[in-house]
Please model this.
Amino acid sequence: MSERTDLLLSIADDELFLGWRNSEWTGIAPFLEEDVAFSSIAQNEIGHARALYELAAEELGTTADELAFDRKPEEYRCAPLVQLRRLEWARTIARHWLYETADKIRLAALMASPDPAIAGVAAKMDREEAYHRMHAEMWIDRLLSSEEGRTRLHEAIDELWPYALGVLDDELRPELRSRAESRLGRELPDVEPVARGVHEAELAELWGEMTMVRRSAPAGTQW
Amino acid sequence: MIFEVFRQERKGQPFQHAGTVSAPDERFAEIYAREQYGRRQESVALWLVPRDAVRQISEFPDEFEMKYRRVDGYSIKARLREARERAGTLETAPGGALVSDETAQWGARER
Model:
């Protein structure tokens, strides 16, 4: 597998798993408007995953669906950050914001790629991610504006920080640290990143759920 | 805060009331309205209006039942016919019925 496909699959897997995880809030988000908005953001992420899988599929001679659902759990390349099940709102928001902040750095690098297909899809994604970032930033301001919110956000960030570093390659991590520290107004711990390649137990569990329907019917079934 | 949301379906069309969003402030309202009323490309523009900014008028007294201000039940046809009769400008249609040119045209349009 080429380095290009490896890169495409890493990002596609991130978007697919995060979209899936965020959609776990559908129907139970803190209030109706947030429920609709967060679910819509989750759908966008899955749309991004599809676009990236399609690019990878061209090269591998397969389809986006096969890449998304027919691999074994250990073959996925998503960062451990998006594998975690987080049924608590402050942690969900912390993950959302950490991911979007890291993703912005990654997208900026991809938009400068000499590969026009990659640069193009990155630019399209970035135009939608801008609204995801708006949503995340707004929540960060909201949480930082009260004592309770601040405490809960900082706890969540501390817990997720090693995972957030793991979304990016080595050379982009200092940028993430400096952006996150300046936004939060504090230093973040010097920790070992939980990097790509690590498979949390929650990944296999989610994979089972995500591929259940597809595995129950033979490939090529028309719905 | 409650915001009333108006959406425009295509450029040049009037904005129509779409519904409401409940949000803690204008920034949240913008995101929520965008996701609720714009994510399927169903709008080209949205207006967000804090409900407090809406002045509602809902009392329209009509103590003297001034029906003459309303057009319902006011038959132009019958009155025109009466007026033509008085003026002697009514024509006789084939078949013997009395019709004026104009009423005949209106009849055709109605059909």
